[in-house]
Amino acid sequence: MKSSNVYRIAAVQFEPRFGDRDGNLEAMIDRLATVDRDGKTHLVVFPECALSGYGYASRAEAIANAEPIPGPATERMTRACRDHDLFVVFGLLERDGDRLFNACVLTGPEGVVGSYRKIHMPYIGVDRFADPGDRPFAVHDAGGLRIGMHICYDGAFPESGRVLSLLGADLLVLPTNWPRHAESAAEHMISCRAMENVVYAVAANRIGEERGFRFIGRSSIAGPSGEILATASADREEILFADIDVTKARSKRLVRVPGAHEVDRIADRRPDFYRSLIE
Questions:
Q1: Contacts of 135 (CB under 8 A, 6+ apart)
Q2: Could you tell me if 89 and 42 are in contact, meaning their C-beta atoms sit under 8 angstroms apart?
Q3: How far apart are CA 103 and CA 105, in angstroms?
Q4: pLDDT, averaged in runs of 10, over the chain (279 residues)
Q5: Which of 53, 105, 176, 247 is most enclosed, with most CB atoms within 10 A?
Q6: Catalytic residue among 48, 81, 94, 248
Q7: List 94, 104, 152, 248, catalytic entry
Q8: pLDDT recorded at residue 1
Q9: What are the sequence ranges of the domains in the chain?
Q10: Is CATH 3.60.110.10 what the domain over 6-254 is classified as, yes or no?
Q11: Are 178 and 215 in contact (CB under 8 A)?
Q12: Catalytic annotation on 152?
């Protein structure tokens, strides 16, 4: 649903096929038709590496399944966004000359709106071989909805969500590939990042097994008070929906009892005491 302030978002939890870029792209586009049955969805979010798969064993193997942004996948997705009049975030491996990035891209009816290169790199899967992101965090306007993108492990660093929120994000978008042992992240991370920044947050995870990795699903959408608006299972393909009111993300002062209990987690910060964060 979309009005002047309210936008319907969707998170698609599915199982990409390793190395099958064409098949994964068509699978994502097919799901747009399911999402758009009533024509009210504004944004659809797919998992990390949804185009390519994640469990690469070498840099050369990963680069062979990477492509530029803009590129063939974003061009095809742009046409689908135009057909359905919506925006999409999806994960892919980005090739830029001889560099390789774990990336996600925001595209819409008019083309690529923005992209993001994963900054925090765990030692697992393709992240062992990808280059760390080289661009600062940014917020992108998708038809009035202000979107801040980061990827999977980035969400474990509260600074990522805080910077995006300070830049004006209404919605923190986290395409992810949470494997086993990330259950606590799936349980708590999205709710915490939403609550501490007074924004909406969405995580789109995958399911299935790939080269020894078992992925745990549990995609979710949270509201500005940390409330869970929608959550998925651990092992089924699902689509989550939530209607988000951006006025709630842009009004940081929370008045619980007027004159007696009011908090503003942005205005009440004390940056002078945080200097050790950048030392």
A1: 116, 117
A2: no
A3: 7
A4: 81 97 97 91 98 97 98 98 97 98 98 98 97 98 98 97 98 97 96 97 97 96 97 97 97 90 92 90
A5: 176
A6: 48
A7: 152
A8: 42
A9: 6-254
A10: yes
A11: yes
A12: yes
